[in-house]
Amino acid sequence: MVLDLRKFYKATNPSKTLAVEKAEDRKYYIDFSSVRGGRIIEKLRDKIALLSPDEPTCELFTGHIGCGKSTELLRLKADLEQEGFHVVYFESDQDLEMGDVDIGDILLAIARRVSVSLDTIRINKPRGFKALLDGAAKLLQTEIELKAEVGVPGFGKIAVDGDGAVSLALGIGKITAKAKDSPNFRSRLRQYLEPQTNRLLEVMNQELLEPAIEELQQQGKQGLVVIVDNLDRVNASQKPWGRSQPEYLFADRGAQLRGLHCHVIYTIPLALRFSNDYGIVTQRFMVDPIVLPMVPVQLRDGTDHEIGMALLRQMVLARAFPDLAPAQRLEKITEIFDSPETLDRLCRASGGHVRRLLRLLNEWIMEELQLPLSRKGLESLIQAQRNRVVLAIGDDEWNLLRQVAQYKKVAGDDNYQRLIRSLFVYEYYDNEGSWFDINPILAEAKEFQR
Known about the structure:
Elements: H1 5-11, H2 23-26, H3 40-51, E1 58-62, H4 69-82, E2 85-91, H5 103-117, H6 127-140, H7 168-181, H8 183-193, H9 197-218, E3 223-229, H10 245-252, H11 254-257, E4 263-267, H12 278-285, E5 290-291, H13 306-320, H14 326-330, H15 333-336, H16 340-350, H17 354-368, H18 375-390, H19 395-407, H20 414-421, E6 425-430, E7 433-438, H21 440-443, H22 446-449
Parallel strand pairs: 1-4, 1-5, 2-3, 3-4
Antiparallel strand pairs: 6-7
Helix pairs in contact: 3-4, 5-7, 5-9, 6-7, 6-8, 6-9, 7-8, 10-12, 16-17, 17-18
């Protein structure tokens, strides 16, 4: 079997999220649960499907950006669909301006996505919702026309009531699209919706979610699950009154995000776990966030984590030889790399950050354009990446990084939150619980060793 360089390059695209329900993507999927703190996704599935299928649940899911959360959430979606649930999964940054998000924006995005997903289910006369939308349109004096349309690009198929009532998906879609593109529009919309947030929750529950669940159950489904991905990407910028966006959304307004009458899973920024408001977040949602840690490449004492390294090797080799068994792939290492040690160097340098590993590999292929890939080429890319990262690190932060490397833990203050957000520090899990270490490419920096 001759390796196709172009196909290998395409398979290592770091921006591609694997959807395990697709046969082609499933060949690339590696189950890291044995080194990531257990069967996290299975526990989430069982809580919804086995323990509480008829009672709404709300879960928080977090981890470093790029560590594989979206892939795992899509796997959860597939598992829950097999259990008989209707699952609405969406990436919130497609609907929201992540630098400026409010509670009403999130609720409207959920309402639109649910409406589009359930376009075959007839929702009887959502009068309260229509009144809110009509009020928003009149207040904002926009050209939004809340009337029945079919096949509107970007909004999916539109279901129209027999009496000509507005389609929720179309009406909300037009408003949210306008709000994402226009800060002025967004501000005026919030002035209208903010005092009516509880009313918005009420009509979503009574006129959309509850009727939809009832209809789904009549069709033999277990219920409705909404997965809101990429909310962990909201900027840490401050609101005008001084609260950071993540603290405002998940601490101050968490009770309202939890108020939907269906199963909901939100991704949240990992740095919130180190915030002074973390306790408030857990009180508002009444759950602890579920953390997806990095894939470990070494143990706390610095020696190789053999299982983690073996799984990362398979992740890389599967992108080249998806149809081969794991043992057969290992025999093909030197067709891709100039030595097995070069593959191990790639895995260690990534620190177990899945997207960063794929990005490094993808750039490496593009640079050399021939196989096997050379150790010299890899070292050049690692050095270039290190040079870019160290430019953003000050003396105080180097001192903090040295403390993390020595004690394998972080403290709950703003400086450590920045190290987490900037991917200077990674979180891992072992039998003793979570522990932390610095990004491996920083450990080799002259500034760190000084």
